[in-house]
Fold each of these.
Amino acid sequence: MAWRCTGLSWPQGARMAVLRWEGGRVSPLVPGKSIGFRAEGIRSCVGARGTACPLFTEVAGHLTQARCADCARLERAHSVAADTLADDPRTYRVYLAWFGPGLVKVGITGEERGSARLLEQGAIVFSWLGRGPLMAARRAEELLRGAFGVPDRIPYAAKRAVRASLPDSARERATEVEELHRRAVDLGLWDETLEPLGCEIVDHTEVFALQGLPAPATAVRELVDGGAVAGTLVAVAGPDLHLRTAGGSAVVLDTRLLPGWSLIGANALAGVSVPTTSTSTGGGDDTLQDGLF
């Protein structure tokens, strides 16, 4: 029986990610669990905003968004990430997130989502900076980018490259976020329209199961018809599954590559028989922000 994945998610309040499937089933992603599947047929567009793609257009395997061009435009037509909801009445939070040495970003997320956005991105450490209306949060984000050169996005390839060599000390992991928070507070200029929030460090190292993580040599570039991915789950960070194959190799699978495929079970001994790329050059397509606010 073929299954169709709708993506990985971090349920609010949970300390474990799940894979979601069409029909409503979920698969908890427990480190130590054996995972194996084989792709069948072609990868087809998943549609947009709850509506199926009328043409079931074939989608390239390397894309991290399983949508054709028309459905992608429709999906982003009312997107905070695309700045098409300037009058959004919800409260937003500005956060500072750390993914490894030198990899700090500023971003915003809807307050009702809690820390889900940070888990989805694979943030190792984060702290809130402020809360308030959408456009005030956007202004604060832009101000920090301009004043300190802090990006609002870090490619997943860069995150994967350092994930297995993070500092062991929680104190050291928190340092860059604490310093940026202090500088942002000293800068001011944004706190007249946002309610400032104190620096309270949240560390996801344990949640992601990154202690002792083996450095992966490769990342899955794309699935192909008949290609298998199988191994033992070692860690989950953001959308990434870190697997150890039966042969002992460490590989990363970006689960954003799964939607659109029909998947059947595969024995753990199947290993990885899909195209891969070196983790030093990255895996998957990071050109689009998925906008999961």
Amino acid sequence: MTTTVSAPSSRGSRLLARASAEALGTLFLVVIGLGVLIFINPQAVPMPASLASGLTVTAAMLAFGYLSGGHFNPAITVGHLVAGRMKLVDGAAYVGAQIVGGLLGALAIFAVVRTVPGITDSRTVFDTATSGFGTHSSFQVPVTGVMLIEILGAALLVGVFLGATARRNPGKIAAPFAVGLTVAVLLQLGQSTGNLAFNPARATASAIFSSSWAVEQLWLFWVAPVVGAAVAGLIFRGFGETAPAAVPEVEEPLPADGWDEKSDDDAEAAAPESAAEVSTPAAAPAATPVEAKPNGDPAREFFDGKRD
């Protein structure tokens, strides 16, 4: 006979914590990425905007990567999904959180722009930091050229992320620096062709607060990065870099290394989907105590008058 004990699952709360970390990290990236582009003064600020964004990615991954893996980019999340490193429900939560975080970051910068006395049209100011093609590109790059750059850049970024965080990579502790430097060099290329961000969440955040043309062209900055991410994910799936099978009965804590595939993308699989059923043996009925009869002491019995 067994007794059933229900142990509550922490899957939902853990996913919420990871999604919150993604939202906060994306907010950080958008605030710096858009803010520096909008307010930069090359004579007063020697640091390029692309390098500032790359350093922000490194800082965000170091700060929040141990919680969520530090994607902060829907393209990177799609790459993990295609590579088999995370489940669809987790990926959807990540992308939703990244969009929310990006919008909040852009809203904060938009509020700052509105306070500047000399600016009469805040949306026009945002146009200078928003991704675009054709007449809205710095070098008038057509849609085909921008699409190719976005696909290639997203594939390279996702490839670096997946490779730097792979379980078999002995140097994965340096993943934030590898990813941050990759973002910096890619943004240097992207900004010269049309403020390309290789990040759909950031592209969406800036487009919402820009002129109407930005929303009309936004589709490209989702389709192209997702295609590039899928290509990189398929390549790494071929390498066999998927998360290990999890044991459903055991709930493991998140390890210190936030870029292990199990913690980055499949940590929740180790926890049961619902309340765990733990079987424990029923307690055996208590045995009736038997009163032990002490051995007689002939000398004491004699003095007590019990023995003649």
Amino acid sequence: MTRYLGLDVGGTKVAVRLEGGEGDADAPYETAFRWTRGADVREDMAALAACLDRVRLHAGAPVTAAGLALPVTLDPSGTVLAWPNRPGWTGLDLRSELHRMLPGTVICHADDGDLAALAEARAIGCENLVYLGVGTGIGGGVVLGGRLCPGPARGSCELGHLVVDRTGAVCDCGRRGCVQASASGPAILRRAAVLRGAPVEYAELCEAWAAGTSWAEAAVDEGCAVLAAAAAGTAELFHQEVTVIGGGFAEGLPGFVERVERHARGLVRPGGPQPRIAAARPGGLSSLDGAVLLARDSAERADSAVVWSRTAAAA
């Protein structure tokens, strides 16, 4: 009995999906949990282990392969080098932790933005695609010729840290003017709070945006303009057929993608590339879909992922 597991590890929550192999009639099993605000890394690992214990119990058989969509920067041994959203993870031996939680499972990982791009490209049958996901940060990924670029073994395509304004806001990474510093969910909420003159929660922003309230309109519009600049800049490099805008934050704001497209049209130079701007599939689950694809592909295409195998775990 074959079992494939996908995990989308985000800054605020972890989404999990368990699927069977070919011909398996069982419906996919999905679950999720949110990180406890202010928790340290030991509490985070305990919460993740408890979730995976529930998944293994439901599976009824060993998990064959697990694919992880990760926003963290790792060294080749699987140790966390940096994750601004959860700085307490720095120095964590994530490979060892995961093999302890999933004994005997082949574990593979890639950047969450890269995997979202891969999932979107396969879903729409497009071999040349750029993905920008708006959430706690800005996830990004590029697929060229049907394959991830530059490929997980060489690193992720960090489009969220593409500098679009040298004098812009300070990003979590420490630089000024990254796409993430102006277009991520938290960045848009901070700008909305300044314009409103009071703190703004996401639900309030969604309501005010739908009503056409001026402070919400201005806060979201600036984020869309920055994303359009990123789309136009990447088109000069990759000549993608489609730029997909996804992420849970963008999905909750009707008309968000259309606003990005409007700004992008104004940035096209005569004779220059004009990729289509499209919304990601509903659900904001592109990275999770990609994680499951990664698990399924791990045995067939060794170059499609960084694999932490059973052998590596035992070494």
Amino acid sequence: MTSSITDSAVKAAMAAISDESATAEEKIQMLIEMAQGFLKKPKNSQDLRSGLGLFYRAYQMCGEDYPLLKARAKVGMAGTLQIIPDSNPQLLVQAKDSYEEALPILQQFATPEEVAEAQMNLGLVLQSLVPYNLARITDSIQAYHEALRVFTWQEYPQEYAILYNNIAIAYLSMPMASEREYLRQGLAVQSFEVALEHINIIDHPREYAMLQNNLGNALQYLISSHPIDNNLRAVAAYDEALKVRNSRDTPLEYANTISNKANVLFNLPDNPEKPELGNPKNLLQAKFYYQEAWQIFTAHQEIEKAEIVAQAIQDLEAEILAVSLN
């Protein structure tokens, strides 16, 4: 059995740290850099395990002499645990603990950007642990806001957009009594709108489309006494996203947005001024979008999404039939 590239790289790393001409600090730095290399484009779970092993070896070598490198190794281990496919809660808890152990050291010795990146990733881990009742969503939102002190829209627009997107999604997942449901939804919509004040289609098209798509989703399900107005705003947001997303360059993102738009059209009257006349035109447009989305999801092996859209098409056809019989 021939050894893989991963195996060879790990052996090379082990050989490098046994080289007596390199200092301990250089060896630790080398291990961290090689581990980071595995994580940039991991081809399989073996790459992730190898990266995790190298970070751990670097962590062990630090002892108490190299606190910043030790913290970076901890952050590397946390990031690896975070991206292991289907990360179970125990791995995510380990990642959370690693970030929380590293952050005080990073705050003392590292750049503000390095600290903010760790806070951003801690927020993601905390958010992932909330469904298991192993973290509080308010702590996740606080970590994101800490990162926003550094990742401003002027200097770091991409991170700024992602952080506000994550904050909005965190609000949407926040458990609240039914009478306060509108509050968290309103906070989510507000978060998307705050980000869109600074993220524009010309300079940051990908982030702009992401925010507009997710704003549309929040508006679509917003509890309100004006559902038609909210749905019209949702359609406008999806149309903004579709100025960037298309079937050629971003097929999966495009399919997500047109299926989201179809969901709105299903419930939107053709003439908002006369809702009693129904929505036969919007139903046909929704069917067209669903069918296109289903084809894209199927072609890209997104089976679960294809099945959801197929069910939506069935429901839509039943609605069209019911309208035609009335």
